[in-house]
Amino acid sequence: MKITLDMSISKLLDAFDREFGISLGIYKGAHKSDNIKLFEIADPRKNQKAFIVINKDTSVESAEAMFRNTFGIRVQVKDKNGNTVSQESTLGGIRKLDKGFIENNENDNINLLENEDENEETLEYDNSKKKKNKKSYFLKPKTVKHTVEDKIKEIDKLYLGFQRSERYKSMLNLLSCMEEARLTYPESKELIDHIEEIKSKSLNISNLSIKKRKFAIFVLIIITSILSIIGIGTWGYSLYGKIKKDREADNIIQEIDNLRMRKGSLMESGNISAANAVDESINLKSERLNSIKNETSVSIANYFIISAFFLAVILAMFILRLNKYNVTSIRFGKTT
Questions:
Q1: Residue 69's closest CA among 89, 51, 90, 87?
Q2: What dihedral angle (degrees, nearest 10) is formed by the CA atoms of 113, 116, 118, 120?
Q3: 75 in helix, strand or coil?
Q4: How many angstroms separate the Cα of 314 from the Cα of each of 148, 150, 271, 308?
Q5: Given 92, 104, 185, 319, which residue has the most CB atoms within 10 angstroms?
Q6: What single string gives the DSSP state of each residue in 188-226?
Q7: Could you say which DSSP state residue 23 is in?
Q8: Rounded distance, CA 128 to CA 107, Å?
């Protein structure tokens, strides 16, 4: 059974009586006239094109909640005599229970004319039938997982989380929740307006977050560039020093060879004192050559280059995440 705001109160009451065999108490505007439309007594903030669908399996609690949440109209389901019924009973179960009560009374009158054995068997059968009826028609009400108000609260909660953290995951959760709510309640003007408001606020937050991330990337680029320049400069200077030492070592080796030749000449001429002086010079130059060959140093350029490499990796990750964040935030600007 589909109920819209274009229905009149009298038509609604007749439909309930004909469909479910029950009456409906309306507590707003019904005293004016039974011919007025439901939209005249509905909450003006609700969507005027909204509708609800109920059937015999709908519980009393769910039916009353649908009128309240969708139309803003407070109603109360009652039986044919105007008595209130259990919130857990179903709309179709109320009529069937009344019929079952009448049939049981008729069976009791007939059973008075039968013998005692048949009466006992019938009573046992009736008792089991009553138990089955209770199990069949006093079911737990079907609970609505989400109403429009619940979705609005959930969206607000996720929005606050995104506002605090400005993280990509929080943004994605918020967008997913809003799109799910839009698909679930496409005719709820209140929900759509709220989603557009949250989108506008979230777009401002994402734009500000993008500016912060761009500034962080800019700083990382500067630091990485400085470290790279220092590392390359230091490495070049170290390479130049190494080349210079190699040339110095070659010159020392050349000088040692010349001194040894001179020492040999002096020894042949018998000038021992001059040969000893040349020998001392050879020893000094040999010590200098050994110190050059044994000198090992770890260039500080390596540390700068390694640091610049790690910062470059972090910078690349920042750029990729910024691009992903920026593309996703564009969805805030799309109209519902």
A1: 51
A2: 120
A3: strand
A4: 43, 41, 72, 10
A5: 185
A6: -HHHHHHHHHHHHHHHHHHHHHHHHHHHHHHHHHHHHHH
A7: E
A8: 14
* 25 three-state secondary structure: strand
- State how far the alpha carbon of 110 is from the alpha carbons of 33, 98, 114, 294, in Å: 46, 19, 7, 122
DSSP string across 115-134: -HHHHHHHHHHHHHHHHHHH
Per-residue pLDDT tens over the stretch 29-77? 444 456 788 878 887 777 777 888 888 888 888 888 888 888 888 888 8
The CB density around residue 99, as the number of other CB atoms within 10 Å, is 11
Q: Would the pTM count as exceeding 0.85?
A: no
**CB hemisphere CA count around 181 (13 angstroms):** 29
User: Can you name the residues that pair with 77 across neighbouring β-strands?
Assistant: 24
Q: Which amino acid makes up residue 74?
A: R
At residue 166, φ and ψ (nearest 5 deg) are 55, 25
Q: For residue 162, give the nearest of 295, 329, 318 by alpha carbon.
A: 329
| 170 DSSP β-pair partners | none
pLDDT in tens, 307-324: 889 999 999 999 999 998
Closest CA to 14 of 87, 28, 72, 3: 3
Residue 102 Cα distances to 96, 98, 99, 290, angstroms = 10, 7, 5, 120
Angle, CA 94 vertex, CA 14 and CA 100 arms, to 5°: 120
Distance from the first to the final alpha carbon of the chain: 30
